[in-house]
């Protein structure tokens, strides 16, 4: 039911009132269906949000969720998001379609969104992916780039966590989707592999892996209108409900929503409907924030439209959108697909089939040939979009049309996992850039056992810088030392223009300290009590935006604190651009290891 004028809407209201007086009480639920249809009605432009430009590239409408729970573009035109779960970056070999394969898919199926499940541990540690011969971050970003180049919105799905690397090459063990649950069953107390286990097991104090990757990716793609963030996929497998009960889960999920709303305030945020009845009955408060879409997974060949009505109604009452991110599988019935067609057409919800490979009869061969399930989905999506080719093509007017300006996406400016062969100096980082400063000139620095090491210095101060010079930036480092004290500091720097000018955040054993060094003169700006012990890995996050400096630190095996450890402080001494890097003060006999370094330009 769609309404194209105010008169038609008014007529529909009158008709419903007449029906209400005429029908028996047993039919009230189907009337509730009709009222919900009226509530969801609006100007349905039957648009995909995607426009093909004259040069073959694509432009994407910036989407948001309106007060009635519809996904709309900037003109309040309802956008149907119809697509596939396509590719896999969470376990096993990992992989995704080639550009040629995606192009072949578009010839047989009208769709405008793809969803990819990724492993947060892989992202945070930038593990090597043998089949792609690249590190994980480059792999994920290549997926996004290739998908968008083929005209798809991209839903990044934060999935399960486990440390077993992608298989291929010399890595013969291929992890499974539920590898995290298997690892927990084998080592519930984290005694066999304490470091990796503590990072991935879903403990009551939920680990920072998911939060960290979401924070990184929302900053990286904050300005990309094609990006949609699915913050927590199916948080309910294995021992999850015991390890993270609902009174801890709901605040943790709200925190992930907050991360997206803070870093990418114009992006859609997809929230899985874990323990959703507890929200509907008021046991736990409703989520807060904007552009929220509630995600339901529905695998039933006998499901009906009416079964979905209460959930959709609750969502719309709260100004949330609704998406069914997974349905179908290997057993898709015609009636099930018809339910998806009706929900999309009449209630403006989004639907994605799981997974693309279940719709093809051609295996990995090209061109893609649809099987019987694929034909059902093809017919459904074509009906919803109202055309075989859902992607409108830009038609130039007689007046000169400027070429669309590429979306400027702020993000990483430096990234080093230290995963490379043992060598003197730190040399080339994992992002391909070359370290500068002492780390590439003083022989106390080396790469040893996949860490950036500093060993046996002589009570000296050392600096290493990586990446271009920028003004507003954030740096994150993971570092440990055999001695942390006033004479053995471990830290990071921003806005470095020389060895005599930079901002510096560091641990000295009892405090997290923020200093400025201007013309060689050192001044303490702020401190906070923080106990750092020897031989323990710590994370240090340091941010400078405008004239405000922020710093936090935490033990790597614990969750990242929401707030900053030091009180934000203002200083205008170093207002220009500069480099990000590391900074140490070390005595002889001490070993310092940096296992991770990342710098991000801030908007």
Walk me through what this model shows.
The protein has three domains: 1-41, no CATH class; 43-385, Glycosidases (TIM Barrel), CATH 3.20.20; 412-601, Sandwich (Jelly Rolls). Helices cover 26% and strands 28% of the residues. The strands form six sheets. Strands 15, 16, 18, 19, 21, 26, 27, 28 and 30 form a nine-stranded antiparallel sheet that branches. It is elongated, with a radius of gyration of 26 Å.
| Number of E-state strands | 30
Distance between the termini: 43 Å
- SS strand fraction: 25-35%
Number of structural units classed as domains: 3
**Average pLDDT:** 85
| Approximate shape | elongated
Task: Work out the helix count.
Answer: 14
Biggest beta sheet attributes: 9 strands, antiparallel
List keywords for this structure.
single chain, 603 residues, alpha+beta, TIM Barrel, Jelly Rolls, 8-stranded parallel barrel, 14 helices, disordered N terminus
Question: What is the fold's blueprint, element by element?
Answer:
Blueprint: H1 6-22, H2 28-40, E1 50-52, E2 58-60, E3 64-65, E4 71-72, E5 82-85, H3 99-108, E6 113-118, H4 120-125, E7 128-129, E8 134-135, H5 136-149, E9 153-158, H6 179-186, H7 194-200, H8 209-220, E10 227-230, H9 240-243, H10 246-263, E11 269-272, H11 276-280, E12 292-298, H12 305-317, E13 321-327, H13 334-347, E14 350-353, H14 372-385, E15 412-416, E16 423-424, E17 436-437, E18 445-448, E19 451-455, E20 460-470, E21 473-481, E22 489-498, E23 501-507, E24 511-518, E25 521-529, E26 538-545, E27 548-555, E28 569-570, E29 578-586, E30 591-601
Parallel strand pairs: 5-6, 5-14, 6-9, 9-10, 10-11, 11-12, 12-13, 13-14
Antiparallel strand pairs: 1-2, 3-4, 7-8, 15-30, 16-18, 17-20, 18-19, 19-30, 20-29, 21-26, 21-30, 22-23, 22-29, 23-24, 24-25, 26-27, 27-28
Helix pairs in contact: 1-2, 2-12, 8-10, 13-14
């Amino acid at each position: 039911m769609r309404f194209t004028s105010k008169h038609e809407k008014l007529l529909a209201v009158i008709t419903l009132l007449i029906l209400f007086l005429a029908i028996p009480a047993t039919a009230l639920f189907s009337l509730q269906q009709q009222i919900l249809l009226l509530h969801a009605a609006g100007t349905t432009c039957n648009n995909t949000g995607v426009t093909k430009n004259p040069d073959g590239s694509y432009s994407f409408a910036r989407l948001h969720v309106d007060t009635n729970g519809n996904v709309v573009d900037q003109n309040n035109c309802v956008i149907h998001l119809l697509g596939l779960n396509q590719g896999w970056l969470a376990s096993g070999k990992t992989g995704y379609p080639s550009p040629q394969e995606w192009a072949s898919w578009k010839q047989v199926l009208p769709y405008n969104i793809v969803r990819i499940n990724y492993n947060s541990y892989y992202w945070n540690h930038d593990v090597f992916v043998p089949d792609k011969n690249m590190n994980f971050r480059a792999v994920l970003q290549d997926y996004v780039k290739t998908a968008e180049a083929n005209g798809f919105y991209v839903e990044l799905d934060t999935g399960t966590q486990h440390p077993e690397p992608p298989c291929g090459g010399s890595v013969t063990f291929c992890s499974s989707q539920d590898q995290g649950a298997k690892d927990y069953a084998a080592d519930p107390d984290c005694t066999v592999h304490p470091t990796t286990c503590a990072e991935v097991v879903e403990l009551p104090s939920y680990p920072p892996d998911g939060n960290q990757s979401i924070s990184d990716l929302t900053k990286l793609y904050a300005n990309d209108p094609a990006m949609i963030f699915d913050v927590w996929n199916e948080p309910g497998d294995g021992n999850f409900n015991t390890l993270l009960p609902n009174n801890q889960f709901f605040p943790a999920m709200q925190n992930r929503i907050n991360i997206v709303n803070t870093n990418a305030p114009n992006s859609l945020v997809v929230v899985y409907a874990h323990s959703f009845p507890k929200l509907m009955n008021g046991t736990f408060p409703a989520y807060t924030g904007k552009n929220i879409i509630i995600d339901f997974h529905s695998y039933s060949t006998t499901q009906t439209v009416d079964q979905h009505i209460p959930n959709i109604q609750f969502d719309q009452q709260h100004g949330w959108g609704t998406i069914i991110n997974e349905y179908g599988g290997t057993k898709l019935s015609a009636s099930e697909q018809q339910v998806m067609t009706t929900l999309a057409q009449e209630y403006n919800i989004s639907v994605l089939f799981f997974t693309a490979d279940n719709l093809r009869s051609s295996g990995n061969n090209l061109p893609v040939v649809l099987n019987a399930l694929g034909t059902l989905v093809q017919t459904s999506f074509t009906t919803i979009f109202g055309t075989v080719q859902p992607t409108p093509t830009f038609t130039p007017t007689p007046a000169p049309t400027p070429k669309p300006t590429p979306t400027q996406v702020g993000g990483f400016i430096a990234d080093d996992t230290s995963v490379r062969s043992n060598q003197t100096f730190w040399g080339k980082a994992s992002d391909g850039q070359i370290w500068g400063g002492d780390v590439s000139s003083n022989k106390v620095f080396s790469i040893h056992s996949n860490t950036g090491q500093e060993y046996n210095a002589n009570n000296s101060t050392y600096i290493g810088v990586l990446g271009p010079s920028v003004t507003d930036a954030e740096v994150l480092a993971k570092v440990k030392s055999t001695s942390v004290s006033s004479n053995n500091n471990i830290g990071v720097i921003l806005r470095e223009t020389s060895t005599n000018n930079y901002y510096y955040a560091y641990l000295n054993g009892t405090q997290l300290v923020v200093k400025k060094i201007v013309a060689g003169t050192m001044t303490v700006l702020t401190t906070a009590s923080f106990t750092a012990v020897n031989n323990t890995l710590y994370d240090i996050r340091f941010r400078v935006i405008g004239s405000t400096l922020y710093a936090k630190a935490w033990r790597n095996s614990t969750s990242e604190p929401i707030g900053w450890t030091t009180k934000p402080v203002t200083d205008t001494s170093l207002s220009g651009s500069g480099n990000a890097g590391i900074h140490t003060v070390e005595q002889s006999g001490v070993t310092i290891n940096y296992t991770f370094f990342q710098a991000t330009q801030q908007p």
